Amino acid sequence: MDILTSYSFLVVALGTVILAAAAGIIGSVSVLKGQSLIGDAVGHATFPGVVLAFMLTGVMETSILIIGAVSLGIIAFLLINMMTERSKISLDSALAIVLSGFFGLGMALKSYIQGNPNFNGTQGIDDFIFGQAAYILKSDVYLISLISVISLILFLIFYQQIKIYVFDPVYARTIGINVKLINVLILIMTILLIAAGLKSVGAVLIVNILIAPAVIGMLWSNKFSSVLAVAACAGALSAFSGTYISTALTGIATGPAIILSLSICVIISMLAAPKGIVLKKYRMKKLGESL
Questions:
Q1: Mapped to the 3 state alphabet, what secondary structure does the chain carry?
Q2: Residue 229 falls within a domain, yes or no?
């Protein structure tokens, strides 16, 4: 109970819960479109943007670093599109090249500035690799909340268009929906949430809060709105429990604890959900007996 009433815990929990709930909703669109791995590549690509933003400004300010992360994330996405559309490189190969290349660049730049006396105050850079939500400030929570609210407002405004586009892009074009605009909106929302979550979850693990809640939602329902609701709740619950575990147990980083909580939720859903293994076997057994 002492932890639950702690000011520092409440600040960190609020930031991670808001982020994970918004990421669960937006990430569901990418998963349903079969583009979840693009988020992984973009997530890794944002790390060199963080380092470059610090190198150019010399300031370890979250809002400035997020601008750098978003810029490199957009460049990575455009590069993936260019490689797949203008060459014979497959999407899987393009994702692997961009993911490893950009993240390798980020690590190289990080090693350079940490060994260079011209750059001071580089200790916080490591937090953007695996995340360290324990160092989230009230200003970071405000920024995460702002980005999450902007993403959700955009999602709600274009909800019907996004829903039609996700399930039938051909029909979406037929009725006059601007598919390119919807694609850009989904990209913007995804990159914004990835950038906002770097400090708390890290570039390596950030994609999990976009994918895992969506997978949980899809195991519990076939209805789009229900999938979104379950994904948001699963993300928020895992973020809260992961933050609590990392606060209660010394030496466990918040980002990995959140991802671990999400993974446990995925396993439980795979077993117990309506579309899970246990109920599926039970229905098959009942069907066999009836025949």
A1: CCCCCCHHHHHHHHHHHHHHHHHHHHHHHHHHCCCHHHHHHHHHHHHHHHHHHHHHHCCCCHHHHHHHHHHHHHHHHHHHHHHHHHCCCCHHHHHHHHHHHHHHHHHHHHHHHHCCCCCCCCHHHHHHHHCCHHHCCHHHHHHHHHHHHHHHHHHHHCHHHHHHHHHCHHHHHHCCCCHHHHHHHHHHHHHHHHHHHCCCCCCCCCCHHHHHHHHHHHHHCCCHHHHHHHHHHHHHHHHHHHHHHHHHCCCCCHHHHHHHHHHHHHHHHHHHCCCCHHHHHHHHHHHHHHC
A2: no
Q: What total of structural domains would you count in the chain?
A: 1
Note down the domain range covering 186: 7-207
Distance CA 73, CA 52 (A): 13
**217 within domain boundaries:** no
CATH of the domain at 84: 1.10.3470.10
pLDDT in tens, 50-105: 888 888 887 777 778 888 888 888 888 888 888 888 888 887 788 888 888 888 88
Q: How far apart are CA 4 and CA 19, in angstroms?
A: 19
- Distance, in Å, from the CA atom of 179 to the CA atom of 104, rounded to the nearest integer, reads 33
Whether 256 maps to a domain, the answer reads no
Query: Does residue 16 lie within any of the structural domains?
Result: yes
Computed over every residue of the chain, the mean pLDDT equals: 83
Q: Report the range out of 40-44, 133-137, 189-193 with the highest average pLDDT.
A: 189-193
Average of pLDDT values for 254-263?
86
How does pLDDT run across 14-33, given as a tens digit for each residue? 888 998 999 999 989 888 88
Distance CA 185, CA 30 (A): 12
Prediction pTM value: 0.82
